[in-house]
Amino acid sequence: MKLSKVFSDGAFKNNPVFIQLIGLCSVLAITNNVTNSLAMGLAVTFVLIMSNAVVSLLRNIIPDKIRIPCFIVVIATFVTLVQMILQAYSPAIYSALGIFLPLIVVNCCILGEAEGFAYKNKLVPSIVDGFGTGIGYLIAVLSMGIVREFFGNGTLFDKQILPEAFPGIGIMKAPAGAFILLGFLIAGFRRILSRRAD
């Protein structure tokens, strides 16, 4: 198993947001600015890597009949760790991510990787798969966050980029704008992948 293929499959070919269309609640909700997008992307990537590693290590011990509850306990442990770190060191981001931080536990992207890959593979490929899938998720949320913050507020990382007279495109701040933008990004991402495949 080539690790580069495992990584590229998770990040590009099977991108959790743009290709598999899973884990979209947080993508649509927290991508109103780049800071929130980056924080959520890094949190999901960390949880993916760590939970894939633990599930892979325990795959021969976990009974098949209770594997899903076991996966959820493993994932919840790392999500709780992320919550505690953010609450201690970055309360503003912790507050901004709100309910979507603990909901990482039931993110289909993470549970799907634990079930579909880590439970069937050894440690190193599972870590690489978690990293690749996390990077794929990070690409998606950062793309959304950059476009929405730039066109919605004229800022990036809360720093004014466009003139202050720029009124902002109101729909980019709204949930409807997130849906519309996601559709365009999915179409663009798939177009790029299809051109690379030719």
How would you describe what is shown here?
Strands 1-2 form a two-stranded antiparallel sheet. With 198 residues, it is an all-alpha fold. Helix content is 71%, strand content 2%. Strand 1 and strand 2 form a beta hairpin. The longest helix has 31 residues, at 123-153. The chain has one domain.
Brief summary of the model shown:
The chain is an all-alpha fold and 198 residues long. It has a two-stranded antiparallel ribbon.
Largest sheet: 2 strands, antiparallel
Rg estimate, integer Å? 18 Å
SSE succession: HHHHHHHEEHH
Widest sheet: strand ordering: 1-2
Rounded average pLDDT: 92
Q: Return the structural class.
A: mainly alpha
**What is the β-strand count?**
2
The N- and C-terminal alpha carbons lie at a distance of 24 Å
> Any low-confidence stretches, pLDDT <50, length ≥5?
none
C-alpha geometry:
globular
Helical content class:
over 70%
